[in-house]
Amino acid sequence: MNRTDRLYALVEELRAVAPRPRSARWLAERFEVDARTIRRDIGALQESGVPIYPELGRGGGYALDRTYTLPPVNITPREAIAAAVALETMVDTPFLDAARSVLCKILAVMSQSDVDAVREVADRIRLTPSGPEPAPARQVLRTAGDAVLSRTVLSIEYVDRHGTASSRLIEPVELLGAGRLWYLVGWCRLRQEVRGFRLDRMRQAAVTDEVAPRRSIDRVWQAGLDLPATRLRLPGSADSSRKADRMLS
């Protein structure tokens, strides 16, 4: 653990037991350094304004003023979702546990209403293995994401796998994908059924003023899409996975 991380961890340790103290020896064993290093670290924290004070006598040590709190961290639901998607790409790396710990900390500093919003959106985002497919236009990515977040009917200009162009109104239900390959899954008013639309095949996308009616996600996926996918997982959420069996547009 580097010094910066240790200083932060020292404050968190003292905050957890406040107003009770922790001795320099106890802290040294906890952070696997010597007591002299702990005293230097405590001195640095005190100089920076952290209200740590010594308690003398048997059972004494260093204590943190229980009224001390860190500056507020304001994280939006969109930022939390972005972090969750990014951290899921680390599933095959040695840093998976650390990545999940980061996401837990992000959710811990958010209000309950924002956490509920994050979980509701996460339930409508699925991740798939990435490939060498062409990247969708940045504007299309942003617009499709906004449509799912706000459940707003989307107007698109689309070219299907056969090269046939069409204009459609889509009631967005879910985003599905990873890497460069992303689909918008929704109710197509042109075809009057659930369809999956590759974002890289959207030539234009624009949100309308109409809020789409809620549609059952489970009922949508009972129709199926021919692409394996798992739900974006958040700490505390039930792990679920589904396999779809309908060809995508």
From TrEMBL:
The keyword Flavoprotein does not apply. Pfam families: HTH_11, WYL. Transmembrane segments: none annotated. GO terms for molecular function: DNA binding. SUPFAM superfamilies: Winged helix' DNA-binding domain. Residues 6-62 form the Helix-turn-helix type domain. The keyword Zinc does not apply. It comes from the Bacteria. Keywords: DNA-binding. InterPro entries: CBASS_pafABC_assoc_protein, HTH_11, WH-like_DNA-bd_sf, WH_DNA-bd_sf, WYL_dom. Residues 140-206 form the WYL domain. Gene3D superfamilies: Winged helix-like DNA-binding domain superfamily/Winged helix DNA-binding domain. This is DNA-binding transcriptional regulator YafY. It comes from Plantactinospora soyae. The lineage of its organism: Bacteria, Bacillati, Actinomycetota, Actinomycetes, Micromonosporales.
